[in-house]
Amino acid sequence: MQLKKILIQNNQQLQQDFTNGIAIKQLLHKRSDLIDSILIDLWQQNKLADTHIASLVAVGGYGRREMHPASDIDLLILLNAEPDTQEQALLSDFITTLWDLGLEIGQSVRTLDECIEEAEKDLTIITNLMES
């Protein structure tokens, strides 16, 4: 898989940059940019960009562009409406592909109404959304 090779090569380069004393903030941003690139590519490959059923939102440390090497990638898949069976399959394939790449994913799949409902129950959810 081409993306896995890109991920490995870039992670090795980031490790070398760290060893060479590159500023941590710069490395965190570079790793976030790498993850952005991979996610956008996969979103398009899995035809999710064409469907307009959902938006991909970076949250947590990833949303703040603070991607440490051991950090999981916190994602919100924000749905326009409840997905049909075919759309569910596209979303499932997308998430499975991320796992297959070896990425540690923390994902939520919600509609806007569900986000509001969950945020009313849990302050950390609204904080994550505001920071993204």
From TrEMBL:
<dbReference type="GO" id="GO:0008773">
    <property type="term" value="F:[protein-PII] uridylyltransferase activity"/>
</dbReference>
<feature type="domain" description="Polymerase nucleotidyl transferase">
    <location>
        <begin position="50"/>
        <end position="115"/>
    </location>
</feature>
<protein>
    <submittedName>
        <fullName>[protein-PII] uridylyltransferase</fullName>
    </submittedName>
</protein>
<keyword id="KW-0548">Nucleotidyltransferase</keyword>
<keyword id="KW-0808">Transferase</keyword>
<keyword id="KW-0378">Hydrolase</keyword>
<dbReference type="Pfam" id="PF01909">
    <property type="entry name" value="NTP_transf_2"/>
</dbReference>
<dbReference type="InterPro" id="IPR043519">
    <property type="entry name" value="NT_sf"/>
</dbReference>
<dbReference type="GO" id="GO:0016787">
    <property type="term" value="F:hydrolase activity"/>
</dbReference>
<dbReference type="InterPro" id="IPR010043">
    <property type="entry name" value="UTase/UR"/>
</dbReference>
<dbReference type="InterPro" id="IPR002934">
    <property type="entry name" value="Polymerase_NTP_transf_dom"/>
</dbReference>
